[in-house]
Design brief:
There is one protein chain. This protein is an alpha/beta fold. 36% of the residues lie in helices and 23% in strands. The chain has helices at 10-24, 40-50, 56-76, 93-99, 113-126, 168-182, 198-204, 211-226, 286-295; strands at residues 81-85, 106-110, 135-136, 154-158, 187-193, 236-243, 248-255, 259-263, 266-270, 275-282, 298-305, 311-318. β1 (81-85), α4 and β2 form a beta-alpha-beta unit. α2 runs antiparallel to α8 (211-226). The chain starts with 9 loop residues before the first helix and ends with a strand. The relative contact order is 0.17. The protein binds N,N,N-trimethyl-histidine. The site of N,N,N-trimethyl-histidine has 12 residues, from α8 and β10.
């Protein structure tokens, strides 16, 4: 394989971050786009989250992939190319690839170049015959698949309920764009976290060891590192609420004091109790998610859930 990805330059990336922070922290409701969680440190912390007892999505989805891999492979058919959105460590991919027959190529797409390179090296070892074509990109922006992936039918793979980070209309837009990217006759295998008892849900986003808090507060460290910030991270806290009306977890960074800080020479004030919105994590019902998929031009073909109805895995075909 070759690392033939269109690697975006590091500097473009930092300008993107600078712009988002300077404008996001100047709003009345301060906010930081979720994608900026995933620098090298943030990606590593997210990996730690996936191993927490409280964080049920990863192990539950892995269980579903293992239990239904045969059926998924049958639905996908032989010889397709797998395109994974937000692949991160690609820790679930091998389960899919092991079940499928004659996969023609694998294209992981991720915003963290380091995570992408590590995942490629590992999968190369596991699947020496498989052509791998990584794409370093923000999956919410327009990008092309590498030509080398060829014209095989595509199976899109979007695990982890990462789609849950998007507002509902943006999730529909994303699935529609994924359909355009993957092309005629493609399918999409996508994980969607389910609504459930808050006794299970809240600890998953606010674990006892405080790993999720570190993951969230890494955004402030990242501002200090990359944008010459002088935020005192110990004067902020990670706060999680469930928005019942919309059905989503919302994560915030709360200022514990009246304070100010400088970022790239700009001064920002934070009042005691003021919150910076940093993440939404939507939780769906199965019919609700299927409805979003239909609006985006996909036909729900099959859905699998675990015995406790924690998580759902949807197999969609282009309508
Ligand atoms: C990577 C988006 C699936 O929303 O569950 C985990 C990120 N944030 N804990 C999620 C996350 C806090 C995660 N996704």
């Amino acid at each position: 394989m070759t690392i033939d990805a269109d690697l975006r330059s590091g500097s473009a990336h930092i300008e993107d971050f600078a712009r988002a922070i300077l404008s996001g922290l100047a709003q009345k409701q301060k906010h930081i786009p979720t994608k900026f969680h995933y620098d090298a440190r943030g990606s590593a912390l997210f990996e730690d989250i996936t191993r927490l007892d409280e964080y049920y999505p990863t192990r539950t989805e892995i269980g579903l992939l293992k239990a239904h891999g045969g059926e998924i492979a049958k639905l996908a058919g032989k010889g397709c190319a797998v395109v994974e959105f937000g692949s991160g460590s690609s820790r679930k991919t091998h389960i899919l690839l092991e079940h499928m027959e004659n996969v023609s190529a694998y294209a992981p797409i991720d915003i963290d170049d380091g995570a992408l390179k590590k995942a490629v090296l590992r999968l190369e070892n596991q699947f020496p015959e498989l052509p791998i074509h990584p794409v370093h990109a923000d999956f919410n922006e327009r990008f092309d698949l590498p030509d080398a992936i060829g014209d095989a039918r595509k199976l899109g793979f979007f695990p982890g309920s990462t789609i849950g980070n998007l507002e509902l209309d943006a999730a529909v837009d994303f699935m529609a764009r994924a359909g355009d990217l993957l092309g005629e006759g493609s399918d999409l295998l996508i994980g969607a976290d389910l609504q459930k008892d808050l006794k299970i849900l809240l600890p998953a986003y606010d674990d006892a060891k405080g790993v999720t808090a570190q993951f969230t507060l890494n955004l402030l460290h990242r501002i200090n590192r990359e944008l010459s910030g002088n935020l005192d991270v110990s004067r902020f806290a990670h706060v999680v609420i469930y928005n019942d009306e919309i059905g989503r977890i919302e994560s915030y960074i709360e200022s514990l004091y009246d304070q100010h800080a400088e970022i790239l020479g700009h001064r920002f004030s934070f009042s005691e109790g003021e919150r910076i919105h940093v993440e939404n994590s939507h939780k769906y019902t199965i019919p609700q998610f299927q409805d979003l998929a239909r609006k985006a031009g996909w036909r729900p073909e099959q859905v699998w859930t675990d015995a406790d109805d924690l998580f759902s895995l949807h197999y969609l075909a282009r309508a």
